[in-house]
Amino acid sequence: MKQFKHKKLLSFGAIGLGVLLLTSCTANFCSPVDMSSMAYPFDQGVTVYVTKAEYEALKTGEETKAIIEKEEAFSAEAQLFGLPALAGPAFVDDDGNVLNDNVYKYIPIAPVKEGEYKLSPTYANANKTTGFFKDFITAANNAGFVLPSLYYYAAMDDYVLKNAAAKYFLPDVEIVSATHFETCLSKNSSEFKDKLATVVVGSEANLGENYVAVNPYTQVDPKENPTEISSDHSILRKAGWVKFGGYDAEKNARPFLGNYKLWNDALRAKTYLGYSELGIFDVPGADYLTYYSNQISAKVNTVRSCIATRTGEFGHYGTLADWRVSIEQKDWGYAWGKGFLEGLLVYPVTWMLDTMAYGFDPALTGAGQIWALVIVTLIVRGLLLLVSFRTTMDNQKMQALQPELAKLQQKYPNANTNQAEKQALGQAQMKLYKLHGIKPFRQIIVMIVQFPVFICVWAGLQGSAALSTGEFINMRLSDNINTILFNTKGTWYANTTGWWTALVLFILMAATQIFAMVLPRILAKKMTKNVAKMSKSATANQQNNTMKFVSYGLIIFTIVMGFFLPSAMGIYWLIGGLISIVQTVITQIIMAKGKKGRK
Fold first, then answer.
1. Buried b / exposed e along 339-362 (16+ C-beta atoms within 10 A)
2. Closest listed residue to residue 54, CA positions, set 106, 12, 3
3. How far apart, in whole angstroms, are the C-alpha atoms of residue 153 and residue 156?
4. Is residue 88 within 8 Å of 105, Cβ to Cβ?
5. What whole-number distance in Å separates Cα of residue 26 and Cα of residue 447?
6. The predicted structure's pLDDT at residue 102
7. Which of 311, 400, 423, 372 is nearest to 595 (CA)?
8. What separation in angstroms does the CA of 493 have from each of 248, 485, 498?
9. First and final C-alpha spacing in the chain
10. pLDDT digits (tens, 9 = 90+) for 327-373
């Protein structure tokens, strides 16, 4: 009985160790720069950038004329105080000189009532702000915060555009003050001004090849299925992250939201100038800023796919989930800094996956990641098989010994309630295990080895930036299976969103996992079908019920868990289930040959 007590203690110890390892080898690899890149697509501001011709058309439009006139009146007042305009030319220096006559801006706003416009954040209705205002502003308003004025967001957009342009054309110059744009103009006057003068909006019909646009889309205010402008050609797509980036020269660090707080303080310092739309209550205070920081951080902290073995653009971000963002390269030293298991197991798994994915398909369109995932899964499971083969044999032997165990349970029918019979049954079982070379404790030891490996492989695959990119038969590898299944917009029957692909994957994954679990029991029943049936004791019934409960629980857990997995992880589970099935069959063949040889 002591042996069984020790086994129970070891089991609880293994579970406790597993929980500890689960929390220790799943560290988030995202750097502040990564988080800045991921945050901007979710909050691109309220300003819409248009060509001069489009702007002039707005001034004559039946619905937009009043908006532009009101914003130009507010802008004229702002410029009297040396503040950014809401509408008009987008690139203007502090002296009011227009640096680019191609790019204009305005803010789509809805009237409070007919003919009356108020610059309130609740009335911004640009398509690109829909998610931000629906989720964040509404929640902030319901939480009782005093909301900033719409002009505050427009002024922040002005900081973002000008500093993003400076970062685009002068990438090595760090942003260390709120006057960074003006500093760049004075230090790089001729060259920088010449480049700014050639910038276009991006909605022009003929852009040529070597153009630089402001907008990340060819549509000035994208809503559905917009045409993207690559980061090489778009200032905001490539460098809009400066809104949430930053640089601390003293610490040589890049704090998340550093620039946002820097510009917020700069605007707060101007609230006493007397401009009607930039009073003391129009710029966020510490409480609101903390709330905003927490909301943005929560948005990006859920993302874990930041393990990139080379710097590149990955993922699907933003309200339209179509924005690849720049993720910094992570080396092995960075991984060791995150933790022991991150360096020992998590990073090597991702490195293998990335190396193979880029080898198969440098563009990371999807097929290369699938093949890389198959090979990495085979390698990991093959290595684990070397460690667990004896344990697998023990499990199969125990299944084969069910008739003998049933006889022992018949011999001690009251072991469930009688302590003496319980002890005698335990000793008899251990003697039977020893006779057939089965070591139950070996299962605990192997589990202690296997569990952290499984968890760290999971963390490596989940953290892979390469797996967050690309599609497989229209199914995005980074999207959760349940999200894809319920995304039936468009021609869903044509699988335009990968709906059918996700459904087939889920069915195959669930089926293989369930079959892998029940296959050993099916084979055990087949092996004992010729054994005479005996009435089961209370002990046998209790053990069988426990096994059934555990099996059904695992099956339900597998189906539910698989439903909420990213599709890339669903493929991993599918491959793992197939390997388990093959492993069980091979083990049975080896055992059958061994039994025939002994005969």
1. bebbbebbbbbbbbbbebbbebbe
2. 106
3. 5
4. yes
5. 19
6. 95
7. 400
8. 52, 12, 10
9. 33
10. 999 999 999 999 888 999 999 999 999 999 999 999 898 889 999 99
Query: Domain residues of the chain, as ranges?
Result: 2-31+329-385+443-598, 37-301
CB contact at 8 A, 453 and 345:
yes
pLDDT one-digit tens code per residue, 160-191: 999 999 999 999 999 999 999 999 998 877 88
User: 425-464: string of b/e by CB count within 10 Å (b at 16+)?
Assistant: bbebbeebbeeeebebeebbebbeebbbbbbbbbbbbbbb
Using CA atoms, how far residue 312 sits from 326, 328, 437, 481, in Å, is 5, 7, 53, 25
Q: Which two tokens stand for residue 356?
A: 């193979």
What mean pLDDT do residues 395-424 have?
70
Question: 109: which strand partners?
Answer: 124
Question: What would the DSSP string read from start to end of 179-214?
Answer: THHHHHHHHSHHHHHHHHHT-B-S--S---SS--BS
Residues listed for the chain: 599
Instruction: Round to whole Å and give the CA distance between 86 and 76.
Output: 9
Are 112 and 96 in contact, with CB atoms under 8 Å apart? Answer: no
Cα-trace Rg, the chain: 32
Cβ atoms < 10 Å from Cβ of 271: 15
CA distance 199 to 390: 67
H-only helix segments in 302-412: 332-338, 340-341, 347-360, 367-400, 402-411
Q: How many angstroms separate the CA atoms of 460 and 380, rounded?
A: 12
What is the C-alpha to C-alpha distance for residues 450 and 33, in angstroms, rounded to an integer?
34
Q: Tell me the C-alpha to C-alpha distance, in Å, between residue 123 and each of 88, 142, 571.
A: 20, 16, 44
C-alpha 341: how far from its chain's center?
Answer: 21
The gap from C-alpha 304 to its chain's centroid, in whole angstroms, comes to 5
Tell me the two tokens of residue 38.
Answer: 């991921």
CA-nearest of 295, 303, 298 to 566 is: 303
Sign of CA dihedral 84, 85, 91, 97: negative
